[in-house]
Every structure is written in structure tokens, then in C-alpha cells.
Amino acid sequence: RGVQDTVTPFAVVLTANAVSAALSAVLVYGAHLGIRGSAIANALAQSASAVIFAAALARRGAHLRPSPRRMAVQLAAARDLGTRTLAFLVSFSVATAVAAHIGPVTVAAHQIAIQLWSFLALSLDALAIAAQALVGSAVGAGDVAAAKELVRRLVRWGLVTGTAVSVVLLAGTTLIPRLFTSDPAVLATVRSAWWYLALMQPAAAVVFVLDGVLIGAGDTAYLAAVTTGAGLLVYLPLALLAGAAGLGLGGVWFGLTCFVLVRLAACLVRMRGTRWWRRGMEAARAW
Known about the structure:
This protein has 11 helices and no strands. With 287 residues, the protein is an all-alpha fold. It has 2 domains: 1-65, no CATH class; 67-286, no CATH class. Helix 3 (68-102) runs antiparallel to helix 4, helix 4 runs parallel beside helix 7 and helix 8 (201-216) packs across helix 10 (248-272). The protein is globular and about 60 Å long.
């Protein structure tokens, strides 16, 4: 993806998953290896994928020999992105724990909403991946004007896509939850989260795009700080307050909406300055 080739990763991952599924069937049911057979199938498929990716990079002239300087840049980015992911996991885990503490009906409704949120986040992440590759390439080449134009274009696409998703969710307020459950109590409870889930989508889509922009520009330290701050200082306290004050699932999802909006505001502020693309140029020179 970093060299703007999304077809090769798609083909490799799709093939690896198909091979893993076929091998799992043979080893689990044919060879009667049980869970061990599934593990072997996945390990073989992943190992083959790694070899194919390495060969593809070598054909493109990529430097596969370890370089301490380049590894330092990559490890710094990995540290920042790992911190960001940890903030997500801690915040979402506590929110789920709060929903579970309220009651089984609430946690069931929360799972419907959060699984949909995660699915939509991964779907909209396609724009973030495009932003990583395109903006990273432009900033690395020193073409700031092109990078800014790409940001504007991708933000517009994110806003349009997020709005379309929001409309679909609002139109499916009654139908979509029934695809997950027929329990009347769960269906009634999930409505308190549904409006937040639907209405936050335009903002969430833009946030995902700007996440990709900052990652592509190498401004991962700022992204980690923003996500950690929004998660631990906004979402986490509001989720805990929702449980303590008896605000129910709506309170938990109000916290998630605030989490998204705070991240959006912080990313937009960053975009108005110059440090995000200057970081990218510094990283390109270090590379």
C-alpha cells in the first residue's frame, strides 16, 4: 500500500484466507487435528503471504537489508500507532464493561451497535489507506500543494461517504437491528445508541481520513497523543459517568460521540498548521 499498490495486497490476502480455510477443513476434519489443525493452516497461510510480499517488494527494488536508521524511524511510528491502538482498546473495553455492569440486555444492545461501528470503521478505513499512500507520497516528494489538495479531496469524499452511511442507518433504524436479534428488550435498548451511531458517521469518516493523512505524513506522535487524550480523558470518564449516574446505553454512546468529535477537532486544528507536513519531510530526509 505504501507504494500505491492496493491490488497486490488484496490478491495475496484473499488467496491466503482461501488457502487457510481449505487447509483448515482438511486438517481439522480430514486429519482430525482439531484446533491444532486450524493453527497449522493459519500459520502456513501467513508464512506463505510473508514470502510473497517480500518477493513483491524485492521485485520493486525495495531495500530488504536491515538499516538501523530506517528501523529507528519505523519503530518510532510503531510505538506511536501502538499507543493509539492501546488507547482505543482500553476505552472500548471499559465502555463494554460499563454496559455489562448495567445488565445483560444493555450489553447485548451495546454489542450490536459497537460491532456495526467497528464494521463501518473498517469499511471507511479504505479512505484512510488511500490518504496514507497518496499524501505520504506527496509529502515525501516535497509537494505540499499536492498534499493539501489531496487532503481537501479526501475529506470531501469522507464527508459524502459518511453522510450516505448515516442516511442508510437512519432509514434502517427498525430493520437493521432485527438482523442481529429478535429480543424485544434488546431492540428497545439499542435505539438509545442508534441515533448516536448514525449521526456521528460523517464526523467519523472525516476523522478516519485525517488519521490516514497524519499517518502518511509521519505525524504519528500527534495522532497517538490526540487519541490517547480523547480516549482516556473524554470517552473513558463519560462512559464511567454513564454507569454511575444511571444514564444507560445512551450515556455510553454519548461518550463515544464526544470521543469522535474531540479527535475531529484536534485533527482539523493540526491541518491548519504546517507541522504535520513538515514532520513528513523530516521523516523522508531521515529515510
